[in-house]
Structures are given as structure tokens and as C-alpha cells.
Specification:
Elements: H1 9-33, H2 35-65, H3 71-125
């Protein structure tokens, strides 16, 4: 007689995994529901923000001590450059319009001078 039941390590592992996962999921959900967990996470976030602020302040002090610009100073210069570019674009547009008007005025003046010269030549020939 042969034994029809064989040992399947994968089935045993799958069963173990499913039971363990269900237990851990329940424990994690219960922990997440507790107010003490939320308070703890809030404290961790506050500590992180304090550390980040300290790092920013230290970095800024270091950069100033070696005469390098800080992030805020670079951002301020970038804003000034953008404003300057905008003003230059406005001036360029305005100068283009002024130049066009000046060309028209010179063309009109040229036509009037041509008419005056023609009138002068006609009166001179008579």
C-alpha cells in the first residue's frame, strides 16, 4: 500500500503565511485606531519638523559664513531677473510700436518734402 498523502511544503507555508498575515493585519488595524498612536505620530512629526528647521538654519549659517548665497537669496535674485525680463519685453514691445510710428511719420514727412520740391520746381520753371 502506498501512502496517498504527500508532504507539500508550499501548502504548509501558504497556510502559515495566511494565518500570520491575518493576525498582523488585525493587530496593525487596532493599533492605528488608537488615539495614542496618533499622538505619537504627531510628536514624531513635530520632532522631524524641528530637526528640519535646525538643519535649514545650520545650512544657512554655514553658507553665509563661507560667503555663498542661501536658497532664499537665490530665489530673490531669480524673481528680480524674471521681473527685469518682463520689463525688458514691455520696453521692446513699446519701442517697436514707437519705431513703427516714427517710420510712418518720416514717410509722411518725406512725401510732403517731395511735394514741396515739386511745387518749388514748378514755380522755379515758370
Amino acid at each position: 500500500m502506498t501512502n496517498s498523502m504527500s508532504f507539500d511544503p508550499f501548502a504548509m507555508w501558504k497556510t502559515f503565511y495566511e494565518q500570520t498575515e491575518a493576525n498582523w493585519t488585525g493587530a496593525i488595524h487596532e493599533t492605528l485606531k488608537k488615539e495614542s498612536f496618533s499622538e505619537g505620530m504627531g510628536e514624531v512629526q513635530n520632532y522631524y519638523l524641528q530637526a528640519q528647521g535646525l538643519t535649514n538654519d545650520t545650512t544657512e549659517a554655514l553658507l553665509k559664513s563661507v560667503n555663498l548665497p542661501t536658497r532664499n537669496e537665490v530665489a530673490d535674485v531669480a524673481a528680480l531677473v524674471i521681473n527685469l525680463e518682463s520689463k525688458l519685453d514691455d520696453l521692446d514691445d513699446g519701442l517697436g510700436e514707437e519705431l513703427s510710428q516714427l517710420k510712418n511719420a518720416v514717410a509722411n514727412l518725406d512725401q510732403k518734402l517731395d511735394r514741396l520740391l515739386e511745387a518749388f520746381e514748378v514755380t522755379e520753371n515758370n
